[in-house]
Write a structure and sequence with these properties.
The protein is mainly β. It has one domain. The chain contains no helices and 3 strands. A 3-stranded antiparallel sheet has the order 1-2-3, with no helix packed on it.
Length: about 70
C-alpha cells in the first residue's frame, strides 16, 4: 500500500489468492482453488482463468486528500 505525495490517491496491491493443492499443478489453471478475478466472469478464460494480482486505486470524488 502506498499513496501519492499529495495524499490524493491510495494504491493497494492485492496478490492473487489462487493456490493449488499440489505444487506440481501450478502450470494447470484448472487445478487452482481460486480463479480471482476470473471467477466473477470477466476477462479471458472467465471462471477458469489463471488467478491474477490486482492494483486498486482509491481517490475521493471531490479530488481531496484521502482521510480528510
Amino acid at each position: 500500500m502506498t499513496e501519492t505525495p499529495d495524499g490524493k490517491a491510495l494504491f493497494v496491491n492485492i496478490q492473487h489468492p489462487g493456490e493449488t493443492i499440489v505444487a506440481a499443478d501450478v502450470a494447470d489453471p484448472t487445478k487452482y482453488l481460486s480463479h480471482w478475478p476470473g471467477n466473477a466472469g470477466y476477462g479471458a478464460g472467465g471462471a477458469t482463468a489463471r488467478p491474477r494480482s490486482a492494483t486498486v486505486v482509491i481517490t475521493k470524488n471531490d479530488g481531496g486528500r484521502i482521510g480528510s
